Amino acid sequence: MATDTDHPSSESALHGRRALVTGAASGIGAAVATRLAESGAEVHLLDRDEEGVAKVAARVHGTPHVVDLTDEAAIERLDLDVDILVNNAGIQHVAPIEDLDPDQFRLIHALMLHAPFLLARHALPGMYGRGWGRLVHVSSIHGHRASAYKSAYVSAKHGLEGLSKVIALEAADKGVTSNTVCPGYVRTPLVEGQLADQARTHGIAEDEVLETVLLARTPLKRLVEPEEVADAVAFLCGPAATSMTGSSLVLDGGWSAA
């Protein structure tokens, strides 16, 4: 098995490691599962979309798991004896605070903050016992910057950034790192699904949303591709990032620099 002092090729960097990726049926999660499999990891893919996660798992020769991460009992039943945990699952809801259903707020936090805590809580003891582990949380530029009408999503991502840093401090002497990847808008079903909501909220045509709303603060004026995020995740799991923990890799097209 590779150690942190070795520098294996990208095709074998994670050979012998067991990875769990949430939200793996499409978008970023599917790209991450593919990239980790290419690096030699045994990949377990988790999603509530049974058909979608099965297709991706078959493609990467991984193992699919159909789980609703808002169900705490379902998380308790998972085998979380893994070396790599990628917290990626997420949803979005666009609405002014006064119109946002509190149940929707709770749902987003349950999926995007409480579930990562529970998954980490169960995965960390095994990682500590082996003296090696990687937690990568797919956050967002919204973990560092706010946007109107996204109170649930933005607050959940800010919380995920804090959770990652606390894990990094607690795990620093145990061979385990915790970092986040923070992309801007990524070409995924989640972003595509926002177009109608954003158009309605801002009172503009749907075909105007991408340029005038989503990419308004992004100097590069393009969506991030899922494969770019996957490469960042793989980097944080690999030997070149051994000294990185409690950090955020920002892939925002210059948004936070403006």
Characterise this structure:
The chain is α/β, with parallel strands linked by helices and 258 residues long. The protein has one domain: 3-Layer(aba) Sandwich (Rossmann fold), CATH 3.40.50. It is 42% helix and 14% strand. It has 9 helices and 7 strands; from the N terminus they run βαβαβαβαβαβααααβ. A 7-stranded parallel beta sheet has the order 3-2-1-4-5-6-7, with helices on both faces. Helix 4 (102-130) runs parallel beside helix 5 (151-171). The longest helix is centred in the middle third of the chain and has 29 residues, at 102-130. The radius of gyration is 18 Å and the shape is globular.
Shape: globular
The CATH class assignment is Alpha Beta
Number of self-contained structural domains: 1
Distance between the termini: 43 Å
The major sheet is characterized as:
7 strands, parallel
Summarize the structure.
By secondary structure, the protein is an alpha/beta fold.
Write the layout of secondary structure elements.
Elements: E1 18-22, H1 27-38, E2 42-47, H2 50-60, E3 63-66, H3 72-76, E4 84-87, H4 102-130, E5 133-138, H5 151-171, E6 176-183, H6 189-192, H7 194-202, H8 209-214, H9 226-237, E7 248-251
Relevant terms:
258 residues; alpha/beta; Rossmann fold; 7-stranded parallel sheet; 7 strands; 42% helix; globular
